UniProtKB/TrEMBL annotation:
It comes from Stylosanthes scabra. Pfam families: LRR_1, LRRNT_2. It is found in: Cell envelope. The keyword Repeat applies. This is Leucine-rich repeat-containing N-terminal plant-type domain-containing protein. Residues 1-25 form the signal peptide.
C-alpha cells in the first residue's frame, strides 16, 4: 500500500521531468501558433508547410523566425513557391500577427484576392514583399498607416486602380517596387514630395499609367527611378537636375516630349534609358561629363544634330549606334558623319 502511494506521488514528478525540456524550450506563444495553424488552413494545407505541426515549436517551422529575447514573438515570415492546391486568397489571419516586422510572400501564381485594409494591423512592419502572385485590386490606403515601413515590393502581381496618393506620407520609406501590374490613371502630385528623405528606389514600369506627369515631380529625388512602358506624357525634364542623386532613370516606352538640350544631368548617373518617346532637340555636351555612365539609349525619338564627342558616348559597349538609332537627324560617331 505504501509503494502504491509513493508511486502515485512520484508519477506526476517523473512525467513533469520527462516533458519539461520540450515545454520549457518552446519559444512560440500558443496564441501565435494558433494563428499560424489558421494561416496554414487558409492556404489549403499545402504539403510544403508540413513542418507546421501543432506538436512542435512554431519558431522552428519552415519560413518562420522569432525574436531572440523574451517574450518571444514571430517577427518574420518568408514563404515562396508554395504548392497551393488551387486559387487561394491571401490568408486574412496574417494580419493578426501584430508583432511581424517582415512579411515576405512571393512566387505563388495561385495566390489571389485583395490586400485587405486590415494590413494596417501590422504596426511594426518594416518590410512587405508581396510579389509574383495573382493578388489583385487596389493598394489599400491603410498601408500608409504603417509608419515603420522602409521596403515595399508589390511587383509582378495583378494589382489595379490608381496609385494611392498616401504612400509618400510614409516617413522612412526607402524602396517601392510597384512595376508589372495594371495600375492606371495619372501619377499623383504627392509623389513629388515624399516625406522620407531616404527614398532610393521607385519603380512603376509596365503598368497602365497615363496623363501628364505633374510639375511637382521636380521634387522627386531617388537613386533609381523607372517609369517605363506606361502611357505617360508631358515634360519629363522635371525628373532631372544637376543636384539630384539619381543613378538610374528609365523613361522608355512613353510619350514624353521635351527639349533634351536644356536638361542638366546629375553627375551620379550610370544608366539613362529614354528610348521610344517624343524627345526632341540636340544632345547636350553635358552627357560627355558623366564619368559613371554605363548604359545610354535615346533611340526612337526626334533628336537632331551632332552627337557630342568624348566621355563614354563613343566606344563604351553597349553604348553604340543602336543607342542613338531611329531619330530625326542625329549624326556623328557612332552614327554616320554629319553632312
Amino acid at each position: 500500500m505504501a509503494i502504491t502511494t509513493i508511486s502515485k506521488f512520484l508519477l506526476p514528478i517523473l512525467l513533469f521531468i520527462w516533458v519539461s525540456p520540450t515545454v520549457l524550450s518552446e519559444k512560440c506563444s500558443p496564441h501565435e501558433k494558433k494563428i499560424l495553424l489558421q494561416v496554414k488552413q487558409e492556404f489549403g494545407n499545402p504539403s510544403m508547410l508540413s513542418s507546421w505541426n501543432a506538436s512542435t515549436d512554431c519558431c522552428n517551422w519552415d519560413g518562420i523566425e522569432c525574436t531572440n529575447v523574451k517574450p518571444y514573438r514571430v517577427n518574420q515570415i518568408e514563404l515562396h513557391g508554395l504548392d497551393l492546391p488551387g486559387p487561394v486568397k491571401l490568408p486574412p489571419s496574417f494580419f493578426n500577427l501584430v508583432d511581424l516586422e517582415q512579411l515576405l510572400i512571393f512566387e505563388m501564381p495561385n495566390l489571389t484576392g485583395q490586400i485587405p485594409p486590415q494590413i494596417s494591423n501590422l504596426q511594426k512592419l518594416i518590410v512587405l514583399y508581396l510579389f509574383s502572385t495573382n493578388v489583385s485590386g487596389p493598394i489599400p490606403d491603410s498601408l500608409a498607416k504603417i509608419k515603420t515601413l522602409t521596403n515595399i515590393n508589390l511587383a509582378g502581381n495583378n494589382l489595379s486602380g490608381p496609385l494611392p496618393p498616401s504612400l509618400p506620407t510614409l516617413p522612412i520609406i526607402r524602396v517601392i517596387f510597384a512595376d508589372q501590374n495594371s495600375f492606371s490613371g495619372p501619377i499623383p502630385e504627392s509623389y513629388g514630395s515624399f516625406a522620407s528623405k531616404d527614398l532610393i528606389t521607385l519603380t512603376l514600369s509596365h503598368n497602365k499609367l497615363s496623363g501628364k506627369i505633374p510639375a511637382s515631380l521636380k521634387g522627386l529625388n531617388a537613386e533609381l527611378l523607372d517609369l517605363s512602358w506606361n502611357k505617360l506624357e508631358g515634360d519629363g525634364s522635371v525628373l532631372f537636375g544637376a543636384d539630384k542623386k539619381t543613378q538610374e532613370i528609365t523613361l522608355a516606352g512613353n510619350s514624353f516630349s521635351f527639349d533634351i538640350g536644356k536638361v542638366e544631368f546629375g553627375m551620379n548617373i550610370t544608366r539613362l534609358n529614354l528610348k521610344h518617346n517624343r524627345i526632341y532637340g540636340q544632345l547636350p555636351q553635358g552627357l560627355t561629363k558623366l564619368q559613371h555612365l554605363t548604359r545610354l539609349n535615346v533611340s526612337y525619338n526626334q533628336l537632331c544634330g551632332p552627337i557630342p564627342q568624348g566621355g563614354r558616348l563613343q566606344g563604351y559597349f553597349p553604348i553604340d549606334a543602336s543607342s542613338f538609332a531611329n531619330n530625326k537627324c542625329l549624326c556623328g560617331p557612332p552614327l554616320p558623319a554629319c553632312k
